[in-house]
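[step 3/7] fold_predict: job queued, chain A
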Amino acid sequence: MSRPHPRSPRLLKPKRTVSIIGTGSYVPERVLTNAELEKLVDTTDEWIVTRTGIRERRIAASDEYTSDMATKAAQKAIEQAGISPEEIDLILVATATPDMFFPSTACFVQRQLGAKKAACFDMSAACSGFLYALEVAQQFITSHTFNTVLVIGAEKLSTIVDWNDRNTCVLFGDGAGAAILRNRAGSHGVISTYMGSDGSFTDILSMPGGGCRFPITRDNAAQRLNTIKMMGKEVYKQAVNAMLTAANTALEQSGLKADDLACIIPHQANMRIIEAIAARMNVPMDRFLINLDKYGNTSAAAVAIALDEANRTGRMKIGDYVLLVVFGGGLTWASSVIQW
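[step 4/7] structure written:
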């Protein structure tokens, strides 16, 4: 007779809820305005604002790296959460612009924070990365694998922008946002998350060079393959449809309706995309947290920076329902409903 398989003590514990107990963000000091971009490429402030809603963006210093910005955002989140770095069990950094291919940017953050007990790894889902990482963190905490997880979205996109391409260089900026996740008694926390991808659209938003598919060589350096390439009209169409589907699906899974939401925090890429989503959801624009006019599109950092701004400016209070929705290269998309 075979013996029953031993049950892990972890498996015997009931699943638990996961809440965000602290947020933080950081943007570089240097402000790059539309007026300055007019001197670099053939564009105007009016053209940029009309088509994107962006008025300025932040640019990191040459010796300021993704891990540095991530660390500064994390320190603010740690302070607000009232924990010490030694309490962090896992560090997840969502980024498309890591310090290096390896080691992970999360390891550099661990060193700067002094979070000696944490496991560390990076996630790559372009602009959707922060919400992908948020869901991964939730699974680790729900299953009792870890108790405290630091999730960061951080980007130094200024290093992969083609400053000669007027269609893309006006869009992007640098920055970082962070959140501390833990079980909090009496709170539902992250209620539902929906994620999706469609690899058939890998060519409409990408940085083709720099990996093993297209290594940068002397022969192809002039093609600027290690910079962002985007088919703007196609990205717009796919973004609106994917973000709308993601938002509605996450709401349906949570049992809530748009009227129940205190705040909606969308990916900060383009005002026209946000307006289209608001119209199709029949939600007034004043319910959306928007800061893209100040920071542009900071990819994985965008929704994280906006979340911290919403938190620190009182856009939601304990018990409120918040919807986060994002879209990025891959294509990838995600949405989360959170009880604050």
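[step 5/7] annotate
The radius of gyration is 20 Å.
The longest strand covers residues 174-182.
exit 0
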